[in-house]
Amino acid sequence: DKAIQEELGQKISRLKHRLWQQQGRTCLYSGLPISPDDLVDDLKTQIDHALPYRRSFDNSFNNKVLIFTEE
């Protein structure tokens, strides 16, 4: 995992990379695998709130998921 992070360099945020690893490199909404190429493409993947922020006011790591943008 450290090698992948070094290979991807500064192209991704630490938060995005951490969510990707925690979720088993999978989109939690679709169940589809997220490749390293998908991870660095901000048009393909994004960070979302599991519980809508406007309702929960929870912006913590535990309320964030990495998903495919089209989900």
What does this 3D model show about the protein?
- Helix content is 35%, strand content 14%.
- It is built from four helices and two strands, in the order αααβαβ.
- The chain starts with a helix and ends with a strand.
Poorly predicted ranges (pLDDT <50, ≥5 residues)? none
The separation of the N and C termini measures 26 Å
Major beta sheet, specifics?
2 strands, antiparallel
Oligomeric status of the shown chains?
single chain
What series of H and E elements makes up the topology?
HHHEHE
Share in helix: 25-40%
- Count of distinct strands: 2
- The whole-number mean of residue pLDDT values reads 87
Radius of gyration: 12 Å
Structure in a nutshell:
The chain is α+β, with helices and mostly antiparallel strands.
Question: What's the layout of helices and strands?
Answer:
Blueprint: H1 2-8, H2 14-22, H3 36-40, E1 45-49, H4 53-56, E2 64-68
Antiparallel strand pairs: 1-2
